[in-house]
Design goal:
The protein has twelve helices and 17 strands. The protein has 638 residues and is α+β, with helices and mostly antiparallel strands.
């Protein structure tokens, strides 16, 4: 008989040693590669958002303190891969440690130093194999920018003979509308006549008239009293037929009148289309416009698109990273051998959202010698990846504490309310004493140097509607380049500036010569502009976020319009008269034909059907009256 078996140990010393070694090795690997993992994660995430390379020179993560230090951040510009959107020497972030255990990020402090914009890169920032989703916001903004129609200011149509042979009738909106109206009229008329033929009211009307006349001529006597019941029955049957016919004719008459009204409305649009005809034909001849609202977009359209693109981008970015309401967030799922799928996060009640900056003061220092160099202080409240959980709008204010160079004053106030289903954002930015850009005026061959001035940006977004206005004001602008008179031609004297009618007339006559020239027109306009020292430029966006409308206004547009009117008014007016006459000659036959077709449909078809309906109504009235009288006399049904 064997002795009692020994019980196994709960913890084996050898196994515990192996576990300890594995845990220590895992901890060492985590400690050794944590910085590298965070660096790669930031670079990959940033690249997927921006659509270009995001590089970090070094990352120092101190998990026990909840601090992260980033050095050498470079974010490439997806539109210019050899240029950085932003570059920062150092970024320091302090986080709360307990939320990190729940995979949440709560920021205590954030400091950025050595920030520069638009710096050159040593290597291209273009992605070799970009994710289809990377840079999606930039592509949406660029797609909008590509669709913006910027008018041109052309003076090439001046001088020489105005050739109207290039005006094609098929391209005139009035002619196209007239042809479409004629086709619609013919189609409607055919349909109405087909319905009228199917009704074929004439035999029934003639039969009813014959019966009514017979009844009206019938005189009840003892000899023909037996005929009365048969006549009454015939009259009642005809009355039913007339009632049905009258209803059918009334329905057809209503349809015809409605159609004729729509055709007449179409005919009334011709007067408005004539302006489009003239604008089209005028554009073929490259005649300059004297309308200031058209000249300002022609001068500053490209500049406005360039400076308003970032506004569109950041408006979309705010929606992407601060979703409204309890909008579920979709992100690529973890990589697997098969389909990776999509991870959908539905926000619910939680201690913290994934990211939260409850309230704090952010110190921001921009280094270098540029206009933006200096110290800034930003106050932030309620910045969260799930605003509905925080239930308060994000409030941001930025002020400049000290500056080496650049703006004398800078202030930014923003309220981003994404707590409900409808986004409500407002941003107000003002900079005084800022260096404004130089603007190439290609149509005039020169450059406008705005110099130092003030810049304001006001943005409001409600739902999918956006309204943004950027305004630049400069009081000491300078000019360079510009059009000059052709060699051998007399230059305008300093005393002959726009505003002096006699001087203007003399200069205009010298500039234009016998028939005018584009070169002299540009020189005249340029000379008018170079005397201007105060410039105001306003660029606006308004409409839906997908298709906002661009509008531009400037005092320079008004100045160019006045100058063109003074220098070229008579010549352009004569050319416009020839263009208008040619447009009228080509469009008139089509318009007259369309109007005559509409009038024929109204008088012939509509008139005939209305006449038949009235005839049926009159016969029914006579028949009802005679039947009632005959039944009373014969005491039928009484």
């Amino acid at each position: 008989m064997n002795g009692p078996e020994k019980k196994g140990r709960v913890i084996r010393t050898s196994g515990l040693g192996v576990f300890a070694l594995v845990a220590v090795a895992a901890g060492l690997l985590w400690w050794m590669f944590l910085d590298e993992g965070v660096r790669r994660g930031i670079e990959e995430t940033g690249a997927s958002v921006v659509g270009a390379r995001v590089d970090l020179a070094h990352v120092d993560v101190r998990a026990s303190d909840g601090s992260i230090r980033l050095e050498g951040l470079q974010v490439a510009n997806p539109d210019a891969p050899m240029t950085n959107l932003i570059e920062a020497e150092e970024i320091s972030v302090d986080l709360l440690v307990p939320p990190l255990l729940e995979k949440k990020v709560v920021v205590e402090s954030f400091v950025m130093r050595g920030v520069r914009f638009g710096t050159p890169r040593e290597v291209s920032g273009a992605l070799e194999n970009p994710d289809p989703e990377s840079g999606a916001l930039w592509r949406q903004v660029n797609s909008w920018a590509d669709q913006v129609q910027i008018p041109t200011l052309s003076l090439e149509g001046l001088g020489g003979t105005v050739d109207v042979a290039g005006i094609d009738a098929d391209s005139l909106p009035t002619v196209r509308h007239a042809r479409a109206l004629t086709a619609a009229t013919d189609s409607m008329r055919s349909a109405w006549e087909e319905r009228a033929r199917s009704l074929d009211p004439r035999p029934r009307l003639d039969s009813a008239r014959a019966l009514v006349e017979r009844l009206e001529s019938f005189r009840l006597t003892p000899l023909n009293a037996l005929q009365a019941p048969g006549l009454v029955r015939s009259g009642q049957g005809t009355l039913s037929t007339l009632t049905t016919l009258e209803d059918d004719l009334a329905a057809l008459d209503g349809s015809v009148k409605e159609g004729v009204a729509s055709l007449q409305s179409g005919a009334g649009a011709f007067s408005g289309l004539r302006a489009e005809d003239f604008a089209y034909a005028r554009g073929l001849l490259h005649l300059p416009s004297f309308d200031a609202p058209e000249i300002s977009p022609a001068l500053f359209g490209s500049t406005a698109v360039l400076w308003l693109k970032p506004v569109m981008y950041w408006a979309r970015t705010a929606e992407r990273f601060l979703p409204p309401g309890l909008d579920p967030r979709q992100r690529p799922g973890p990589k697997r051998a098969r389909a990776e799928g999509t991870t959908v996060a539905f926000p619910g009640k939680a201690t913290y959202p994934s990211f939260l900056l409850q309230e704090g003061e952010v110190g921001l220092e921009i280094g270098g010698s540029g206009a933006g160099a200096g110290a800034y202080t930003a106050h932030v409240r309620g910045l969260s990846s799930a605003p509905s959980l925080v239930n308060r709008p994000v409030e941001i204010s930025v002020a400049r504490d000290g500056a080496r160079v650049g703006p004398v004053g800078l202030s930014l106030d923003a309220v981003l309310d994404h707590t409900g289903e409808t986004i409500r954002d407002s941003v107000a930015l003002r900079m005084d004493g800022v260096s404004l850009p130089a603007i190439e005026l290609g149509a005039l061959g020169g450059t406008l140097h705005l110099g130092d001035g003030s810049s304001t940006l006001q943005l409001a977004r409600v739902g999918e509607n956006i309204r943004a206005r950027m305004r630049w004001t400069a009081n000491a602008v300078t000019w360079s380049g510009g059009a000059t008179p052709p060699s051998g031609a007399p230059a305008p004297s300093p005393d002959t500036l726009p505003g002096d009618p006699a001087g203007v007339a003399g200069v205009a006559g010298g500039l234009l010569g016998e028939s005018g020239s584009p070169e002299w027109a540009r020189a005249f306009v340029w000379r008018s502009l170079t005397g201007i020292r105060n410039v105001e430029l306003e660029m606006s966006l308004e409409g839906t976020l997908d298709q906002p409308r661009l509008s531009i206004s400037s005092n320079l547009g008004e100045a160019v319009a006045r100058s063109l009117q003074e220098a070229l008014g008579e010549e352009v007016a004569a050319a416009e008269a020839r263009v208008r006459a040619e447009v009228e000659r080509q469009a008139r036959p089509h318009v007259e034909n369309a109007r005559s077709r509409v009038e024929a449909a109204r008088t012939e078809v509509a008139g005939r059907i209305d006449s038949q309906r009235q005839e049926a109504e009159a016969l029914r009235t006579r028949l009802e009256s005679r039947l009632e009288e005959l039944m009373r006399q014969a005491r039928i049904g009484g």
